[in-house]
Hints:
Blueprint: E1 7-9, H1 12-24, E2 29-34, H2 40-52, E3 55-60, H3 80-89, E4 94-96, H4 100-103, H5 129-144, E5 148-152, H6 156-168, E6 174-178, H7 198-203, H8 206-219, H9 225-238, E7 240-249, E8 263-271, E9 274-281
Parallel strand pairs: 1-4, 2-3, 2-5, 3-4, 5-6
Antiparallel strand pairs: 7-8, 8-9
Amino acid sequence: MPDSVPQRFSDPAALRHCMAAWREAGERIVLVPTMGALHRGHLALVAEAQRIGDRAVVSIFVNPTQFGPNEDFSRYPRDLEVDLARLGEVGTDAAWTPTVETMYPPGFASRIEVVGLSEGLCGPFRPGHFAGVATVVTKLLNQVRPDVALFGEKDFQQLRVIQQAVADLDIGVEIRGVPTLREPDGLALSSRNRYLSPEERAIAPKLHGVLAEIALASRNGTGVAGRIAAGRAALEAAGFRVQYLTVCDARTLAPVERVDGPARVLVAAFLGRTRLIDNLAV
């Protein structure tokens, strides 16, 4: 089993040189963008990258431009050496670990905004977040120039925003979503789960349970409004502070009252100080 630390790059020129050599050799490069604090969900993305490509590259960069002024950038978990060791255990080929100064040098003045898809769901609660995501992901794709980039479906709105940006800007990278990895009790894996107290962790799976109930009802052709109201009440009774709970068209993310095509039920809620998001396909 692999147990060596992957090649680590923090200099863009060295990264480009390595990626160019792999491309010249005809190797298929798959990128897994992350902000570190790697868990089994991230490693599942790496495994998928290895399955579909010849070279698996993981970027680790805590992107300041996607955090709001009252969000957790300063306390976002960081342990690069542990992350690199985990990547080595699963045989990752390369890690791209740029600094903030590399990604946003003095005079940096560009931003990518995806209108429409960025405006609902998390958009009103995290102003500027998706512009920060779209901008940094565009930079990562241009730096690595992979054939494919993988993103977890847990951040479904983020996935759709990135897919739209890549299509609109003709970047030429395939963006694939990978199903959410969950704990046995249904809680979606997330770096922020470590913020939950033991009592909150026991309550947290309720989020997935409510989503499953709404998804099932929606598949059966039932109107969603009543189920959403009941689900919101159940979450609030359990101690969540719900920001949104809704069923949306899976392509446009527009809310729907009745499901007649691909859709997603999505939720964002605070449990204590921890903001959790999740979604399920309908």
